[in-house]
């Protein structure tokens, strides 16, 4: 009985830690994607071609990472048995 309780507590602890990491990653990536998109639009209006490319690249990579973290989060939650 004690062994089963330790196993459940360990699984819950792992789920909490993984959930926090995924939540932090999702928030960070989405924030960077928004900043990159907004700054790219501002740079495009001003006419700074080089800055547009840099900000767009940041936005694109951040959106891809955001999607990856969402998939990872769903995977973590659904595969806990």
Number of strands: 0
Enumerate the spans where pLDDT stays under 50 for 5 or more consecutive residues: none
- The helix fraction, in percent, is over 70%
Task: Calculate the terminal CA-CA distance, rounded to whole Å.
Answer: 18 Å
User: Which structural class best describes the helix and strand composition?
Assistant: mainly alpha
Overall pLDDT score = 86
**Main sheet makeup:** none
Shape: rod-shaped
**H and E order:** HH
| Rg, Cα atoms, Å | 19 Å
Number of helices: 2
Strand content: under 5%
Commentary on this structure:
This protein has 81 residues and is mainly α. The protein contains 2 helices and no strands. Helix 1 runs antiparallel to helix 2 (49-78). It is rod-shaped and about 70 Å long. The two termini are 18 Å apart. 11% of the residues are buried. The mean pLDDT is 86.
Summarize the structure.
The protein contains two helices and no strands. With 81 residues, it is mostly helical.
List the defining traits of the structure above.
81 residues; rod-shaped; mainly alpha
List the helices and strands and how they pair.
Blueprint: H1 2-46, H2 49-78
Helix pairs in contact: 1-2
């Amino acid at each position: 009985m004690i062994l089963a309780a330790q196993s459940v507590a360990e699984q819950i602890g792992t789920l909490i830690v993984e959930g926090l990491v995924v939540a932090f990653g999702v928030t960070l990536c989405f924030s960077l994607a928004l900043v990159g998109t907004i700054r790219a639009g501002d740079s495009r209006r001003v006419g700074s071609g080089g800055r547009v490319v840099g900000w767009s690249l940041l936005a694109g990579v951040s959106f891809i990472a955001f999607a990856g973290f969402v998939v990872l989060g769903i995977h973590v939650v659904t595969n806990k048995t």
